Amino acid sequence: MYIGRFAPSPTGPLHFGSLVAALGSFLDARARGGLWLVRIEDIDPPREQPGASDAILHTLDAFGLHWDGEVLYQGRRSAVYEAALERLARDGLTYPCACSRKEIAEASARRGLPPGVYPGRCRSGLPPGRRGRALRLRVDETVIEFDDGLQGAIRQDLAAEVGDFIIRRADGPFAYHLAVVVDDAEQGITHIVRGADLLDSTPRQIYLQRLLGVASPHYLHLPVAVDARGDKLSKQTHAAPLEPDRAAGDALWHALNFLQQVPPAALRGAPPAELLGWAVSHWAPEHLPASQTRLASDAVSGVTR
Ligand code: GLU
To answer: Which residue, 252, 235, 198, 273, is CA-closest to 24?
Structure first.
């Protein structure tokens, strides 16, 4: 049984970069006779845009990327994440942290740690007079290894390269890593196909899967679309939003070419259903570009040179 998923955060409309992740996970699932689920990762209200969830779902539908079952909304699942957190706390794996970003940066610099690695100041208790803000997870098992379906053997020394990481933020929300692991497990996800910008997060997620006693899915990280300046396409780089009711076939055409699944010229301008039908029956993961980034054509990147 194959169960795949696409898990967008509703921070804005879909653009070419997110289409690549949606399309890659959809094709891999459908070509293997699997299910393809959609989960809206709305656990970070300050970064979200009103109406974005509905706009994303409308666009997927208009592009012929039809999902199975009900859409899962993370915003409605706090009780489930809380339960996972309690389990980790019972096992003595979490602790409150009072550190500000500035304190962390200063302490890491003093100790010569790579930027972003938590220096462990609150690990054995809060400093006197300080209040815990975020919750951190202890990282004791150090090396995580996995075999990525496209990027090959990946190895991360979690303690040295990441350190104890946040699973509940100071401003309230559950961390992405916790929610994503709980939901992938509960939805029975067997295969995760997503952008290589998340490659670095995967060892943290595998570590959490082990602590929570759930299976690890197979991972495949696709190249991330970058513009001519080398920046990942995003709202910040002015990536053009996909137009759901126009030019869907054209965007899919570019996305298939980006993934080196090259449709016959006769399908240029074909409607989405036809292009996707071709792409499912000709899905060739061995042709996927095995880099972590790939230049998107000017036609889709939003860059005008
Ligand atoms: N919600 C995450 C994002 O939009 C992706 C999560 C995932 O695929 O694991 O970047």
So the answer is: 252
State in Å: Cα 271 to ligand 1 middle. 28
Residue 198 beta carbon below 6 angstroms from any ligand 1 atom: yes
Q: Which residue, among 43, 71, 45, 70, has the nearest Cα to 56 in the 3D structure?
A: 71
Contact between residue 23 and residue 257 where contact means Cβ atoms under 8 Å apart: no
3-state secondary structure of 94: strand
CB 18 less than 6 A from any atom of ligand 1: no
**CB of residue 164 inside a 6 A radius of ligand 1:** no
CA–CA separation, 216 and 184 (whole Å): 9
Phi, psi of 45 (to 5 degrees): -45, -40
Tens-digit pLDDT profile for residues 233-290: 887 777 888 887 777 888 999 999 999 999 999 999 899 999 999 999 999 999 999 9
Residue with the two structure tokens 């500035």: 102
Q: How far apart are CA 84 and CA 179, in angstroms?
A: 9
CB 180 near ligand 1, within 6 Å: yes
Cα 8 to ligand 1 centre (Å): 5
> What values do phi and psi take at 236, rounded to 5?
-65, -30
* Ligand 1 atom nearest to CA at 201: 9
Tell me 183's DSSP state.
H
118: DSSP letter: -
Tell me the three state secondary structure of residue 234.
Answer: coil
Please tell me the distance between residue 9's alpha carbon and the centre of ligand 1 in angstroms.
Answer: 6
